[in-house]
Amino acid sequence: MTNLWQPGTYYGPGSEVKYNGVNYRIIQPHSSQGDWTPDVTPALWGRMQGGDNDSHNNNNNNQNNNSQNYQQQQPQQQQHNNYGQSDYKPPQPSEQTGYGGKHPEQTVEVTHEEKKKNWFDLDDDRKKQIEIGGGLLAGAAAIGAGFFAYKHHEKNEEEKKAQAWGAQNWLAEAQSRAEAFKRNGPSTAATWVLTEGKHIPKDAILVGQEKSWNLYICRAFIDGGVQLGKASDAFKKGGVIGYGGDENHVSTYEILLGDMRGLVWVNAHGKLNPDSLGKRPVEGGRENDGTPLYVAKAPYKGAVHPGKASEKLNGAYIPYDGEEKRVEDYQVLCYA
């Protein structure tokens, strides 16, 4: 027996309700409100056809079709000729991963300027319009797929919305950067491009080797910021991001391509003073408070590892053996 829809109730993945004699199945998990009834919020609830049993079968078929479509859209291994003249192909947009453009259920337009804002900087009426109109669906899909769900269970509902907002905006920007690189080639000696899983583009900047695998520089959205880490085709998901003292495994990330004729590694110690480097450092990401993070590498346990440095961190931080390790003496990647 399907329960009647009620306001003030949290509906999670798989929820089904009845409202005005019609059955609905959850699209986007949320806490219900009196003016968010299933019949007026198609971005939150999908109307089910027939009885409960038929709707379960239809939903399972849709999930299977989405899974097959996603697998068909995965990027194949690509080979590069040389930097700036590559046949690099960005990962294809996917409804399951939630990146790469407007979600099929989205009915509200989100402006370019709004995408630059933090979720908490939007006014309450606009946030409600975006949420009801499906403007958070892509980010919710990304979070649900586990790409950026850093301690997601510990966050309140508004914090989860902020995470979904930030995740989808970063993914859209990353896809745009990847498409621009595909069309025009690099505009500087260092270029971030989007990749999936264990696909390492040929021109990725090699930092070092650990055991028998190569280590490259990567970054991904996590907990409201863009954090740095390492990538390798030996890792279970391809990317490993250091954050919060832990290693966080990600399958969707950006990897740094570059021409070392236009780049140089500069020695540094302790807290980074960018002005003391004598050259412009390559900005890799940002903390969730906006603090810039720079690309670093540091020796540890007989190997050289990619990591991050900033004016607030007391040394370089690298992901290693399930944790973040601090190294006082390190090098920062700069433009030559």
Automatic annotation (TrEMBL):
GO terms for cellular component: extracellular region. Residues 102-114 have a biased composition (Basic and acidic residues). Keywords: Hydrolase. Residues 50-87 have a biased composition (Low complexity). Residues 30-114 are annotated as: Disordered. GO terms for molecular function: carbohydrate binding; hydrolase activity, hydrolyzing O-glycosyl compounds. InterPro entries: CBM5/12, CBM_sf_5/12, DM9_repeat. It comes from the Eukaryota. PANTHER family: AGAP009604-PA (PTHR31649), FARNESOIC ACID O-METHYL TRANSFERASE DOMAIN-CONTAINING PROTEIN (PTHR31649:SF1). This is Chitin-binding type-3 domain-containing protein. It comes from Pleurotus ostreatus.
